[in-house]
Design a protein that fits this description.
binds S-adenosylmethionine, alpha/beta, 15 strands, TIM Barrel, disordered N terminus, 2 domains, binds iron/sulfur cluster, two-stranded antiparallel sheet
Length: 367
């Protein structure tokens, strides 16, 4: 069945639900759209407006599709950007170019100490604040994070079976991750979504069960195609389960509507969303490998040590930490970002002979 994907529940919707209109942030710190903000446009006429901040390269899991079981070398603490440095870069992006979404990621962001403090620093910017996490520390952190300004969360969970979970993450924490999802819902984070990397022969047989789990719990499932960003370099194309296959399997049990579109107002979501015909929510697919959405990419990333990247698969980086720690002004930071965005490429070339893997793996970039 040729399933098209409906409009994504994205940032505009999240902002509307949170009671924010435009740049007026209703909490204690009023923020107005800076009159000087101008769109930041890359060489392929795409507007850049979404910032991914990695706060650490460390993790308490060792997912097979991301890291080896042993032997990862971590950055020394002094090399990480401080929360103040991260917030400064974010402020420059919001003030100068009207960035309107920031996602905190890693490594595992919740292993960095005092994470709520970062959200306290970002909240006055008045933009959508999201986080991607493996969820295992959410039972103790979700409430404090929500209170500090986190609005929504994606919890990564690829299986509902303890044995598969142990095999995939090399940890025995399924129950705590499930408790983490509950804690996020209880803390009022909305929406709570679940990221599911699908790998053929490992968890693809669970796609329908996971879809059912999402329908029951009011958790939006986002199935992600396995990308060649594992630290070990073991990725092969035959492990990738194409998104259309995932949707077909779900459709056979829970019929899906026919249309698809990843636009949500001005925003473009990586997850193309398809609604269930019975009105029971939606399911999303992130088809980075088989149907790349590079032509509508609006994001840039900063690694935990302050390297600015214009693409997950970028081969070049710009050292913003050096600019900041050498005493650079906001203008210097902005100039460095503008110059880098001026080199943003049209898109990655996974599957083509010209594709070159970046030297960093997913956890070192900030997925
Ligand atoms: N540790 C956090 C987590 O797992 O959610 C945040 C960082 S993790 C690198 C961000 C996202 O990247 C997760 O949803 C994870 O499943 C996904 N990911 C990691 N390696 C991947 C790969 N090789 N292909 C596709 N997605 C991957
Ligand atoms: Fe850690 Fe996330 Fe990578 Fe898993 S995917 S090893 S939880 S950084």
């Amino acid at each position: 069945m040729p399933i098209e994907v409906l409009a994504s529940a994205g940032r505009a919707e999240a902002n509307a639900k949170a009671g924010r209109s435009g740049w007026a942030y209703a909490e204690d710190v009023p923020v107005t759209r800076p009159s000087t903000a101008v769109p930041l446009i890359d060489p392929f006429a795409r507007r850049v407006r979404d910032l991914r901040l990695s706060v650490t390269d460390r993790c308490n899991f060792r997912c097979t599709y991301c890291m080896p079981g042993e032997g990862m070398e971590w950055l020394p603490r002094s090399e990480l950007l401080t929360y103040e440095e991260l917030a400064r870069i974010a402020r420059v992006c919001v003030e100068r170019w009207g960035f309107d979404g920031i996602r905190i990621t890693g490594g595992e962001p919740t292993v960095r100490a005092h994470l709520p403090r970062l959200f306290e620093l970002l909240r006055p910017l008045g933009v959508d604040l999201a986080m991607t996490t493996n969820g295992v520390r959410l039972p103790e952190l979700a409430h404090d994070l929500a209170a500090a300004g986190l609005q929504r969360v994606n919890v990564s969970l690829d299986t509902l079976h303890p044995e598969t979970f142990r095999a995939l993450t090399r940890r025995d924490e399924l129950d705590r991750v499930l408790a983490g999802i509950d804690a996020a819902l209880e803390a009022g984070l909305k929406p709570v979504k679940m990221n599911v990397v699908v790998i053929r022969g490992i968890n693809d047989h669970e796609v329908v069960d996971i879809a059912a789990f999402g329908r029951d719990r009011d958790v939006g499932i986002r199935f992600i195609e396995f990308m060649p960003l594992d630290a070990q370099g073991d990725w092969t194309m035959d492990q990738v389960v194409p998104s259309h296959e995932i949707l077909d399997r779900i459709h056979a049990v829970f019929p899906l509507e026919a249309d698809r579109d990843r636009h949500d107002g001005a925003h473009v979501e990586p997850a193309a969303r398809v609604r269930y015909q019975d009105g029971h929510g939606d399911v999303g697919v992130i088809a980075s490998v088989t149907e790349p959405f590079c032509e509508s990419c609006d994001r840039v990333r900063i690694t935990a040590e302050g390297k600015f990247r214009t693409c997950l698969f970028a081969l070049e980086e710009t050292d913003l930490r050096a600019t900041i720690r050498d005493g650079g002004t906001d203008d210097d930071v902005a100039a460095a970002i503008e110059a880098a965005v001026g080199t943003k490429w049209a898109g990655h070339r996974i599957g083509q002979v010209t594709f070159v893997r970046p030297s960093r793996s997913m956890s070192q970039i900030g997925g």
